[in-house]
Here is the input.
Amino acid sequence: MERLKVKAILDKTVDHFNKYGIDNPRLDAEIMLAQILNMSRVNLYVNFDKPLTKEEVDRYREMIIARSKGIPVAYIIGEQEFMSLDFSVNEAVLIPRPETEHLVEGILDRLEDYKGDEPLKVCDIGTGSGAIIISLVKLSKRRMEGIGVDISKDALEVAKQNASKHNLDQDIDFRLGNLLEPISERVDVLVSNPPYIPTKDIEELQKEVKKEPLGALDGGEDGLDYYRQIIDEAPKKLRPSGIIGFEVGIGQAKDVASLLKEAGFSEIEIISDYSEIERVVLGINK
Ligand code: GLN
Here is the structure.
C-alpha cells in the first residue's frame, strides 16, 4: 500500500477536525504532526511529499482522536510556549496563555525602577506549570530568588520539571500549600494568576478549557474569592514598596484595583491585553 505523505495526511486531518468543530483545524493538525516528525511547522511545508512510517501514522492517529475529544493540543503534545520559552504541561496544570505574558512584562517593567542590587524575593501564588515565576527569574536583569506556591502536588511536579528544564532548580523554591500560608518571610514581589472564573460560568466554558484543572479556574461566586484572600494577607508578606501583580478575568480589573486600594496599596495600574481586555492589575505596598 502506498504510504501517506505529509500534505495528504494534513488535509485529511483538517477535514476530520472540521467535522468535529475544532477551532483551528489546520494549526492544530500541523503542530501535532510537526512534533511527531520532530520538525518545525514551517518545515512541514518543504516536506509535503515526505511519506510517513506506519508508526508515525499510528501515533498521529492517537493524537487526532484525543484532539477530537476536545483535549487541548498543549496537553496532547505536552508542551506550550510562554514568553518565548518552552514549558512542559499536563492535565495537572493550567495551560499558560498569551495574555498572562502581560503580567510578566508588567512586573519586569516595574522592576526597572526597583533600586539596589541584592537578590529580590519573588513569589508566585498558584504557580501551576511555573510559567510565570520561571519566566520572571529567567528574563529579569535582577538576581532573583523565586518562590512558587501551589496547593496541588501534581502541579508542583510539573513546575519543578520546568525549572530544571530552564536550569533554575537552585533559583526557585517550590512550596506546597494554600495561597500565602507557606510564606513566612517578607518578599519583594508577589504575583498571581489565581482561579477567577465565577462558579456559575464554569459550565459554559469551552470544551477545551473544561479539560483544565477546575481548581485552577473556579474563583467562587463572583470569581474574586482568591483576590480577596491574597490581598488580605499580602501587606504582611510584602516588603514596604514591594510590588503586587495579578492577572484578572474579564470585567474584574476595577474590582481588584478597589480591593488593593482598600488594603492600602498605591500606584495602582491596569494593563490591557491585545484584545483590549483589562487583564493585569499592579500595585505597590504602602
Ligand atoms: N484564562 C483562563 C480562562 O479564561 C482562566 C484562568 C484563571 O482562572 N486564572 O479560561
Summary: The two ends are 73 Å apart (CA to CA). The longest strand covers residues 238-247. The chain has a mean pLDDT of 97. The beta strands are 79-82, 85-88, 120-125, 144-150, 172-176, 187-192, 238-247, 266-272, 278-284.
